[in-house]
Design goal:
Elements lengths: L2 H32 L11 H13 L4 E5 L2 H6 L6 E9 L5 E7 L18 E4 L3 E5 L7 H19 L6 E8 L10 H6 L7 E4 L6 E5 L1 E10 L3 E2 L9 H20 L12 E9 L5 E2 L2 E10 L8 H13 L6 E10 L8 H16 L5 E4 L5 H6 L4 E3 L7 H4 L7 E3 H18 L2
Parallel strand pairs: 3-6, 3-7, 7-16, 8-15
Antiparallel strand pairs: 1-2, 2-6, 4-5, 5-17, 9-13, 9-14, 10-12, 11-13
Helix pairs in contact: 1-4, 1-11, 4-11, 6-7, 8-11
Length: 424
């Protein structure tokens, strides 16, 4: 056995033993995070940020606390946002790898059989212990995954195993609002300049691409009149209906925009919110609706908004007296693989297959995430973390969100072993 392969074996044995022994502490850490609400909206996440900072400090980390200015927080529809950064330097040289997870969560909603802020653990006959709670899978779990991966690397260094590079924990609180005052703000402020980035994900697949998302609000203005004399007004709802028909016809065009990325089908459009009118006996002078346009990774850089505006204005032109305005609410660019990401993918795939004992592949998802902020800066990025095969299994953004604690342990081992390769 060569010295390098012997070192890898020693590293694997050391971190596996360490993480097995530390798993109860890792579970308690995650429970503490689940028990502090961090719903977004309303987006008041300061208490959770403080609890996370305190827990990380207790583990011996020096935690940088970066409070986002109040006026900027308000502009993104939140009440408070704090970004936490932990940095650990190993040896000399080597890459800087940022690991980002978000602590803000969607509100729990109805239908829970467990306390959404309880962190309750239930023994499952098939999967072993399972923790329930809002954010336990998306993505407070990866606060625990990434923290214990870093602790394991520190333990390996203390045993004399060679590591070179820097690991950064970046824990943020605005993913549900778009990530602009979380990861993007960290990068814009020059607080981090990583060579690679890892974002929260699930354990049985490596996400290397995802859809983008565009939200537009369309406002259609007409002229009110008495319903007994509709010809004296300009019907905004009638015009809005014409515009909607054009947009729904556009669905057929988008269905032909197929992605070559495994896990992603085609581009889509959906109208999810509509309102208008004054009363039943009044010609409506105003109608508004919001639409959601999902862009496949191949559409990165494509002007999807410009194309939609052309369709909307073209349809509106058929209704004299109508005024139409279009406002962008959200633009999240797609995530696509960058040159150099194969090094990340290979390290994580190799170690995931060794730990999980089954094939693990890189794929895309039709969602959008904070990871796009790193790739937009030219930073090769993947998503990998604790969780089952699908968001549906974890019931993310659903009642009874849950995490199999064995998946938490396995994912932490995979992250640690992959980082060890990248830092060696």
């Amino acid at each position: 056995m060569s010295s390098s392969s012997g070192s890898r074996v020693a590293f694997s044995q050391l971190v596996t033993s360490f993480l097995d022994a530390e798993h109860p502490a890792q579970i308690r850490f995650l429970q503490e995070l689940v028990r502090v609400p961090s719903d977004n909206p309303s987006g008041d996440c300061a208490a959770h940020g403080e609890r996370a900072r305190a827990l990380l400090t207790q583990l011996g980390f020096e935690v940088e606390v970066h409070v986002v200015p109040a006026e900027l927080v308000k502009a993104y529809g939140m009440l408070s946002a704090t970004n936490l950064i932990v940095r650990k330097r190993f040896g000399s040289g080597g890459p800087t790898i940022a690991m980002n997870a978000h602590g803000d969560v969607v509100p729990p909603g109805q239908g829970w059989s467990k306390d959404p802020y309880g962190g309750e653990i239930v023994e499952d006959a098939e999967h072993g212990p399972v923790m329930y709670g809002r954010g336990v899978a998306v993505s407070k779990s990866d606060f625990a995954t990434y923290t214990w991966a870093l602790l394991a690397l520190i333990a390996a260094e203390k045993q004399g195993l060679p590591l070179n590079g820097t690991i950064e924990l970046q824990f943020t609180y605005d993913e549900e609002a778009g990530g602009d005052i979380g990861p993007k703000w960290i990068l814009d402020q020059g607080l981090s300049k990583p060579d690679y980035a890892l974002s929260a994900g699930f354990a049985y697949g490596i996400t290397s691409a995802h859809n983008g998302c565009l939200h537009l609000e369309v406002t259609v203005k007409g002229k009110q009149a008495h319903a007994a004399m509709p010809h004296t007004g300009v019907d905004a709802i009638e015009a809005a209906s014409g515009i909607l028909q054009a947009l729904y016809a556009y669905r057929g065009v988008l269905a032909q925009k197929k992605s070559k990325v495994d896990g992603i089908d085609h581009a889509t459009i959906n109208v999810g919110l509509i309102k208008g009118g004054i009363n039943t006996n009044v010609v409506p002078d105003l109608a508004t609706f919001r639409l959601d346009r999902r862009m496949i990774p191949e559409e990165a850089g494509f002007d999807a908004e410009g194309e939609l505006r052309q369709i909307i204005n073209g349809a509106a032109s058929a209704f004299p007296g109508i005024e139409v305005s279009v406002q962008r609410i959200l633009l999240a660019e797609p995530l696509a693989e960058l040159p150099g990401v194969e090094k990340l993918i290979d390290a994580f795939r190799r170690n995931a297959e060794a730990v999980l004992g089954e094939p693990v592949k890189a794929h895309g998802v039709p969602l959008y995430t904070d990871a796009r902020h790193y790739t937009k800066r030219g930073i090769p990025t993947i998503l990998y973390g604790a969780g089952p095969r699908t968001l549906m299994e974890a019931r993310g953004h659903n009642s009874d969100e849950n995490l199999r604690l064995d998946d938490l342990l396995k994912a932490t081992k995979v992250v640690t072993l992959a980082l060890g390769e990248l830092l060696n």
